Every structure is written in structure tokens, then in C-alpha cells.
DNA sequence: GCCAACGTTGGC
DNA sequence: GCCAACGTTGGC
């Protein structure tokens, strides 16, 4: 069981928008980066990920679940781009800020810290546990 | 809003 | 296949 992290600008597509889609979820479209796409191809039904607000949020605000595996991105005719569907699972009791993540030595290898530009990224099980604890939320 | 870092494109 | 130019992302 792998864990993931999805980044989005809250002004464009935030947690509230994701929650509003309910259990059907929504495709994570618009990704035009091979690394991010490859990560989505790896995702299996039922795997979980963090939902992170970039730019004007800079914090992890909730947990999402993959509810459809990789399929063509319907927002483009270019067959190279695929995406998964995700649905909101539960919000964090306490959002976990980028500052808090950077301040924790155990999280210094996180992709979020090392490669801030990757919008869909893997999270290790250890990182998953630590961050859920920080957010006072069930993993 | 700025700009560094990174990814992609395209001419050679 | 290299690399300069360009576009985008995202922290600050």
C-alpha cells in the first residue's frame, strides 16, 4: 500500500471543492509533468494521499483516496496525459504546515521538501504516520 | 508580485 | 544528442 501527496492551489481547486464532489470524487486533471503522471499510473484503487494547499496555503489539509485508477485526462486530446480520480476522505483536525514539516528532522527527506515543484508525489509509510500524528488525524 | 529552480521545447 | 531559450511552479 503506497501513500501519495497531491498539491493544488486553493484558489484554483481547494479542499472545499474536493469535499463538494462527495464520494464520486473528481479526476485530478491538468497534470502536464511526466514524473507526476508516472506517479499517478502507479496508484491503486483505495490508496490514500495527502491534500496539500500550495502557494497561498502551504499546509496539508486533509486525506484523499484514489477512487479510479489512471485513465486519459479528459481535459486534453493529447494521449500522453493521464490522471486518477480522488475523493476527500477526512480533513485534518489540525492542518500540518510546510514550516512544521521542514522543522521535523524525520521529514527532511520528503519530496515536498526536496523537490517542491513536483505536484503529485510519493510519501513513505513512515512519513505518512508522522504527519497524521501531527495533524491529530487517523492515518 | 518576484524570481529561483526546474522541466520542456526546438534549432542545430 | 546537446543546450539555449522559454514557460511554469511555488515559496517567499
TrEMBL record:
Transmembrane segments annotated in the record for this chain: none
Family annotation (CDD domains): EVE
Residues annotated as domain EVE: 2-134
InterPro entries cross-referenced by the UniProt entry: 5hmC_binding, EVE_domain, PUA-like_sf, THYN1-like_EVE
Protein name: Predicted RNA-binding protein, contains PUA-like domain
Species name: Yoonia litorea
